[in-house]
Amino acid sequence: xxxxxxxxxxxxxxxxxxxxxxxxxxxxxxxxxxxxxxxxxxxxxxxxxxxxxxxxxxxxxxxxxxxxxxxxxxxxxxxxxxxxxxxxxxxxxxxxxxxxxxxxxxxxxxxxxxxxxxxxxxx
Length: 123
Description:
Blueprint: E1 8-9, E2 15-16, H1 22-34, H2 59-62, H3 64-91, H4 95-104, H5 107-118
Antiparallel strand pairs: 1-2
Region (Disordered): 39-59
């Protein structure tokens, strides 16, 4: 039976197709097993010659711990950053000072002015 379902090479080295197609062999095997007969032509799994190791996985999975630690640190700093932002917003020029700054100063000059005020420099 296994010879009829397997491809072979003849004496001249030419490939010969199996006499029975694989679908027919599978149907015969299923019928034999369903009727309680053994099917001795099943291939037994071979011995593994190399040691299997875990794959590398995705880069984001490998770096997840470092990324979560970075997020925790950023979240710990968040209240200070929000407080500093609110203080900066409160200290910005209001009323006529704001109109004058908007009219005279460029954006970079306004930014420099705010930084100087935060550091306690000239107003």
